[in-house]
Amino acid sequence: MPELPDVEALRRYVAAHATGRTIERVEAPGADVIRNTTPQGLGRALKGRRFSEPDRHGKWLLARTDGSTVVMHFGMTGTLVWADDGAARDDHDHVIFRCDRGELRFNLTRKFGGVWLASDEREVGDVTGGLGPDALDLGRDDLADLLEDRRGMLKSALMDQQLVAGIGNIVADEVLWHACLHPRTAVGDLGEDDLDRLYEAMRIVLTESIDEGHVPRRDGWLTHARDIEDAACARCDAPIEHGRVASRSTYWCPRCQPRP
DNA sequence: TTGCATGTTCCGGA
DNA sequence: GTCCGGAACATGCA
Q: One of A11, A21, A49, A59 is an active-site residue; which one?
């Protein structure tokens, strides 16, 4: 689930429900998803603090308070639930931030990801570790500059969080399909026109996905091919190909995205 | 039962 | 140093 658009949706969700609420207590039925402190340490740092406006950097959510910051990563399966009606908790609600009215539940099925505590920006940086600029903050020339000295396959570069933060497997495939570029295209072979299309595709895929709150499975996009056996390209009707690129499950159109 | 999955990290090899 | 593939991590589902 969590690609950049999903995390942005979670950020807005936290802003809508938790911002301004005072944390009364932290409960951690799944203590092992708390990565750099203990449930007690997290509780001590947060008790009496108020959630402020959250930030996002790539796929990381920074749940700010008037004291420490809770740094969250959702792996492939994480989400957040705000409950103010006493709804039953889920088995995978591993960390609960109990507030004055309601509680924020960090839910993680497969335990990739987790919750970190950071007391300042330096510690936030230590946790997230050398992230590149957020994909949404890039201009066309920023993207060109980042790719300038890069070698290897384009898909690998797009998914490198240290280069650009926020592009995951699904978004990478979608962007490449929109830009009519094969995932194995060598970064060094990109021309100015290719960079124009790549940047435009990235903007479109990210902004439209954010509007939806997630990467949509859409008929006119490549995404729909992930659900369908023998899917056809929405642009040219050629059969979509599926294989592994950069060790990741990859879909592309052999006609629109010719192999370099 | 087996393989696969939208995440990151670590390792060995080219 | 750079880049790539593969393995590992934990869990649910087809």
A: A59
